[in-house]
Structures are given as C-alpha cells and as structure tokens.
Amino acid sequence: MKSTDRKYIQMFDTTLRDGEQTPGVSLTPEEKVELAHQLDNLGVDVIEAGTPITSKGEAKAVTEIAKLGLNAEICGLARTMKEDIDAAIGCNVNSVHIFISTSDVQMKHALGMKPEQVLSTAVESVRYVKDHGLVCEFSPMDATRTDLEFLKKICSAAEDAGADRINIPDTVGVMTPATMRKLIEDVKTVVKIPISVHCHNDFGMAVANSLAAVEGGASQVHVTINGLGERAGNAALEEVAMGLHLIHGVKTGINTKLIYGTSQLVSRLTGVPIQPNKAIVGENAFAHESGIHTRGVVVVPSTFEPIKPELVGRMRRLVAGKHAGTRGIKTELEEVGIHPNKEQLKTIVKRVKSLGDKGKTVTDADLLAIARTVTGRVIAEKKIVDLRDLAVVTGIRVIPTASVKLVLDGKEYVAAETGLGPVDAAIKAVQKLTANLVNVRLKEYRLEALTGGSDALAEVIIKVEDKDGNVMSARAAREDVVMASVEAMISGINKVLLKRRRLQ
Ligand code: KIV
Ligand code: ZN
C-alpha cells in the first residue's frame, strides 16, 4: 500500500494567521469573522484564527470566531511562553498551536537558547496546554533545517508530553518534493501521533512539497487561500485540495465548488490581487485562446481541461486573440446571439488575428464591433437593462449624487446613490437597481481620452464579474465621462445577464 492510500487528509487553514502575515495585509475583527464563516462553509478542518498575544484586536477576533459555534476546530497560535498560551486559552479556542525554533541558526540567533533549553521549554509548554484540556499541535520551527536527530528527539518528547499533532514547518521553503517526503518518512519512524506539514513557497514548491509530505505519511496540511502568507506565501488551499482530490485520489472535507468564491472574498478583503495565470483561481485558469484548444474543449472538454471549471465554482472562457480558431469565435458570438454566415465568420476571424498580431488583446466589445462591421448591419444587442435617464450633482460642498432611471425587463425603476465622485455614485445607482437581476462587481475600470481637448471623446472600458465568475468586458464612448461609464456598465450587465439566461 502506498502511503497516499489513506482515506482523508485534514486541511488546517492558516489564512487568518500566516495569511495575515502577508506584507501589507491587516484584517479587522469583523473581516476575520466573515472569512471564518466562509472557511467553515468551505469545509476546512481547522481554522488558525490568529495569534492572540499580538494585540487586543487580534484576541477579540479569535474570541469572536471561537464563539461562532463553527464545525471547524478553532486554533490560536502561541510561542512556547506562558503569556502567549494564556492569551490563546483566554479566547476559548479548541486548540493551541505552539512553536519554537529548532534549527541551529534560529536557536542561536533568533532565540539565544541551547538545544536542551529549547527541548525542555517545548515539553513544558505542551504539558501546560494539555493541563488546560485543549488540543495541542506542536511545531519545531524551521524543522527542515534542523539536525535530524534533534528533530526526532524533540518531536518524540512533545508526543510523550501529550501533544496531539506534530507539525513539520518548512519555514523558509527550502525543501523539494523528494527531500520533504523522506523527512516525513523519517519523523514517522519515531512519531505515532498525526503528522502535519507547513510549507512556504520561497522556491515555488510549497504545494508540491505539501503533496509529497502526504505521500510520506502526513495526514494534515497547513494551507492558505490564494497561497497568502509570509514572503512568497504558504501552500495554496485550492491547489493542495485539487491536487489531493484529482491527482492523488485522496479525500478532504473541502467543498470544491466554494473555492472560487472564497478566493475572491479573500482577495477583496485582503486587497491582494490574484495573478491571472494562478492555478484554479486565476482569471486565465479556465480560459482557452488557441484554435486547437478552443476547438477541442468545445467538442470534448477533457481534451484541454484537466479540471472541470464547475468543480471549483468557475466557468470556461473562450478568448478571441491571434491564436483563436473559427469554432471558438463562433461559439463566443453565438453566446451573445450573433450568427454570422461562413464568409462573414472567416473575415471576422481574420480581423481578430490581425489585431492580435498588432499586440492588441481582443475584448468581447472588440469582437462585437468587428462582427457588427463585417456583417454590415447593426446587431441588435439584446437589452435586458436599458438606460432611460441620468442626472448627477457634484461640487465642492455637495456629496456627489446620481439619480438613474432604468428599464429592467420592460419596467421602469429609479434609484439615487451617493459616491466618492459622480461616476462612482452613478455606477452604484445602476448596481442598486440591477441587484435583483444580477449582482455584479466592477472588476476593472479604464478611462481613455480619444481626442485632444476638453471636448475629448472619453472612452470607458470596464470589466464586470458576477458571483459565478462570469467576466464580461464592455466599453462606451461619449463626450460625458459619467454617461460613458454608465453605458459601459449597463452594457456589461446586459452581457452577463444574457450569458446567465442562455445557460439556464
Ligand atoms: O513558517 C513557520 O514556521 C510558521 C510557524 C509558526 C509554524 O508559521
Ligand atoms: Zn509559516
């Protein structure tokens, strides 16, 4: 039996602790509570809610999370110090994760302690947590640069003192899959309680090393959403979970359909954008551009899709560009109700490719404009939402306010909103009126002046996204920036609605 032939791997989520240690990230207690709910729904086994000794706000957040009555075990991080452990216990957590450096370099230069002192401190701290009746996870920090014999000795001592789990941190991310697997196998020769792993991504191997640790016998993996964490981050939950499910055939408690929504929420609350080519949750992760690929996935998705997008709460996206093929473009156009004939389609494809050759990315709006020109007629873009009226007030002593009248599915509605400026107020009013049809967020907003003077034609290019990850781009050009923004927004909303209704 291979060591991966185990039934269930526990997911220990540290987005709210190591993830919050991402440079520039700081979450309020309310945001942490919101994320804890989401992580619990996602199905993580343990939520490391924070380091209670850090601040009053942090202790408040951990206490609030512990009070929620979630399914997940709520854990607080503590150094092997009485005041740290007391702070965690004071938050009514289920478990305390204690850590102390064990590598020579860290014992000497970060702690200023001898190995024997480190060992006895670790043992005392484990006992202290256990005396309070809580679950105790022990981490020999920088385990992967620790002398192997000392590592085995301190892990065994922690187990004997009553620890419930031993976590092996690759604190500075220096392992490879082969060395990590071997290390876990070695530690397993002396440790009988569950072994966990905590991998950092300094060499881009955190996920691979976590999977290798599971191969070596680890039964718990520390992860963060979007791979957030100190420096280059931790192993990404979404990648570890999908790797375990689909490559190793191992179960976790993760409801994979909630992965994308969770990733988006974390990105929004932390302000850390997701790189477009990030596995599973990046904008391009399920987008196909080249003709060979789009032809393939349209006919048999598994040709170029190793993961079904719906499995992680996403949808496939076919992108028009210089690598695009006829079938992909045809499907794109058909999705918005445009059916060019064979000759017209050939010309449209040619123009898309020539734009691509000039280095332009071809947006949905570009494709529509090309199709409109080639077919020689105005393609009536079906409108579910239409603008009837718009008025804005702005100035030095007034709060920018916009009032918008829209027709939604044939009926007129009016709403007013305030904002940071007239564009913000008008877009908010549109979002308010259309919220019952679809909730979209403005993902990108770009303003370009097409001509030179104060009468310049302003072109607004936007991207909107609904909660299922449907991203649509739209544009509008007007002399009036507010009008152009509102028209672009409405056009984007119409595209999302059309796509959603076609799929229902
Ligand atoms: O990276 C690390 O070593 C840690 C410890 C607190 C486990 O985050
Ligand atoms: Zn860490």
Give a description of the structure.
It is a single chain. The chain is α/β, with parallel strands linked by helices and 504 residues long. The chain has three domains: 2-270, Alpha-Beta Barrel (TIM Barrel), CATH 3.20.20.70; 287-375, no CATH class; 385-503, 2-Layer Sandwich (Double Stranded RNA Binding Domain). The protein is built from 16 helices and 16 strands. It has helices at residues 29-42, 56-67, 82-89, 104-111, 115-131, 148-160, 177-188, 206-216, 237-247, 259-270, 291-299, 326-335, 342-357, 364-375, 422-434, 481-503, and strands at residues 10-13, 46-50, 73-79, 95-101, 135-141, 165-170, 195-199, 220-223, 287-288, 317-318, 385-393, 401-408, 411-418, 440-449, 458-466, 471-478. The strands form four sheets. An eight-stranded parallel β-barrel has the order 1-2-3-4-5-6-7-8, surrounded by nine helices. The chain has a three-stranded antiparallel sheet with strand order 11-12-13. Strands 14-15-16 form a three-stranded antiparallel sheet, with helices on one face. The protein is elongated and about 80 Å long. The chain starts with 9 loop residues before the first strand and ends with a helix. The mean pLDDT is 90. The structure holds 3-methyl-2-oxobutanoic acid and zinc ion. Residues 18, 169, 198, 200, 229-230 line the site of zinc ion.
